[in-house]
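Predict structure. Chain length: 540.
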Amino acid sequence: MFTPMLVQDFFKLSATLSPKKEALICQEGRWTYEELDEAYDLLADFFVRIGLGCQDRVAIFLDNSAEAVISIYSTLRAGGIFLVINGAVKARKLEYILRDSGASILIADASRAAVVTEAAKKIETLTTVWVGEPYGSHLPRSFSWGEILERGGSSTGLPPAAHRQSIDLDLAALIYTSGSTGEPKGVMSSHLNIVSAARSIISYLENNAGDKVLNVLPLSFDYGLYQMLMTFMFGGSLVLERSFAFPVRILEIIEAEKITGFPIVPTIASLLLKMENPGRYDLSSIRYVTNTGGVLPVEHIRRLRRIFSSAKIYSMYGLTECKRVSYLAPEQLAFRPESVGKPMPNCRAWVVDANGKEAAPGEVGELVVSGANVTAGYWNAPELTAKTFRQGRYPGESLLYSGDLFRKDEEGFLYFIARRDDQIKTRGERVSPREIENIVCELEGVAEAAVIGVADETMGQAIKCFVVLRPGSKIGEKEILRHCAANMESFMTPRYVEIIAQMPCNAHGKIDKHALRALAGSAVGKPCALQPVPSIRAAG
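Prediction complete.
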């Protein structure tokens, strides 16, 4: 038996060991490892025939689907680099990503022909593969997905895609971030980065071939992408859904498919907690629930433990630039629910002060990460790469400066404080939005809370809290403010509270605070009646 080293090698090993086992269950059907393996080879050989070179880029503009999964692994087998683009992007951003990545092949859903045509009409070197029949598209060098997989085979005499040489230092993926500030940036992930991160996560989740993982997160989001990569590494089964738009359907799938692993983000947790009587579904098959993409409020963790009473719940922290940093062992939830745990296996993380020295326990500073999971940097962005990824103690060791503020306690547990640019400076105090959000979410009837700073002549920044209520809740802004005043220092108490129907979210399910800032604008509303008159202290 061969020793797998590349991302696609692990799938091949699983297919060799269990060819008839169901690997993928999705809207398009149910696929065994053997069936997916054959499809990978057909598409990979097509890529080689039309001239895809080693380390050339293939852009995948598809929703979660069998075609997206096949495209990812076929790209790797052909020696290329894949990038999955969220299906919600518009033509301007799509064109930017295509040009920035230098993609030579674009695989797109025919329903998005108008967006694709607008984005790609001036990119003469691009080959487009359509999933479905496009209408109104006049792009040159276009092929049909169905014809490719039906035709198959190679008549050019070129070496089969599976035999092309790649090494683990080659790039496997470009993962484009949401671009919340400026244009999106592509994180360069090598085979070594992905395999190292996946192995570490699999080890602490104790995954095995009997696990069946439900993924409702987009494959364009690294958290969603890794659910697929890891499941195929350990030989499990992946149930791939396109979204969490219909929570009832998701719980029905968990019950019917006997799901064992369920990755979520805070928005999904909030939707689950809004449901009436989720206990009517049999969720006993769930072995573990994981959360990242934002720290869960403590009260949400408590409620999730009641819904998934037989499951282990893992609070985790990570960045696209290194995939995962830490996890909190489930048995620690009762003792330190606000912690994101300790560094995962084969990863080192510590907190540094303003001078770059390791911070003392309890001191707030920037989190720094080291390990084989730390990626090579940002595609076509050497200056940003040099700022974020810095030389370590030894040649070849790259340190990731996260930009996130943390503290570490005496026992080595990490606590997320805030994004450096998320902190609010009010009345001379630095305030973490997360701390306020946690307290607001403790109030019965509150489903979600998000805190931002708004300009204020007297205080520098005033605190504004947006709140989404649970169904049937009748609480108002004054009740929320009284709860805050009773449970936090006066300088932390929001000056403005606004109840909204739902939180704006980005493509990855995270609350979009940039959208909230735009919503707030200059019309921040009237100050809450119970807000004390601000007392300004010297800024420090």
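Summary: The two ends are 62 Å apart (CA to CA).
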